[in-house]
Amino acid sequence: MTEPYVTLTTEDKIGFIEFFHPNRNSMPGDVLHQLEQTIIEAGNNESVKVIVLKSGGNRTFCAGASFNELIAIEDTETGRQFFSGFANVINAMRKCPKLIIGRVQGKTVGGGVGLAAATDYCLATQYASVKLSELSIGIGPFVIEPAVSRKIGKTAMTQMTIDAETFYSADWAKEKGLYAEVFETTDELDEAVKVLAEKLSSYNPDALNSMKQVFWEGTDHWDTLLQERAAKSGTLVLSKFTKKTLKRFR
Description:
By secondary structure, the chain is α/β, with parallel strands linked by helices. It has a single domain (about 5-185), classed as 2-enoyl-CoA Hydratase, Chain A, domain 1. It is about 50% helix and about 15% strand. It contains eleven helices and ten strands. The chain has helices at about 30-45, 65-70, 75-95, 110-120, 145-150, 155-160, 170-175, 185-200, 205-215, 220-235, 240-250, and strands at about 5-10, 15-20, 25, 50-55, 65, 100-105, 110, 120-125, 130, 180-185. The strands form three sheets. A six-stranded mixed beta sheet has the order 1-2-4-6-8-10, sandwiched between helices. Helix 1 packs parallel to helix 3 (about 75-95), helix 3 runs antiparallel to helix 10 (about 220-235) and helix 4 packs across helix 5 (about 145-150). The mean pLDDT is about 95.
């Protein structure tokens, strides 16, 4: 696998959405847009009753924003547009009429933590440690903060944000509520995802949809909020501090 992709595969009423990028499943703007559109497509597909969100490869679930693309940003509007990609994906997940199960097989950083938090139910392996590294590179997890805080609470989100260079273990993430269960192996994770998705796909879809609306009560303002946060990140990414720091990681 050398080319980025986003795919939707339907098996027995389960829609498997998989994204991949050869650079540790980082998320450039085009992949984010494809992911948003694929989530919308799966949500509108009558043959899909439940969605599983996963990434390709066996190691990193998602490394967050593409540093190469961040370095290339030269104006605030381009910056806003890039970070709007994460905002649009999270809002697509939030508004999707189908329940979304997260399948996290490995480390996840920054925006990847936001994706995991925006799923309705997330399962992971013991290798799925998490980190919010944004402050250390001169920006902050502004766009994903509402989703992360909603799932693990403001206190745990603050801890991760301030301790920006530390990976927190999968067990820590489970304790805080990001993951529902943590498994020793990917095979065990995949079996658990399969069993859960099959059960959910046999339930009353109207009940599932109604419960999802309950799960996300109080988030209708996120369409505006996340765009405002994207603009903030789009401005900060232009700072000399951030540009210099990003070049070290390139």
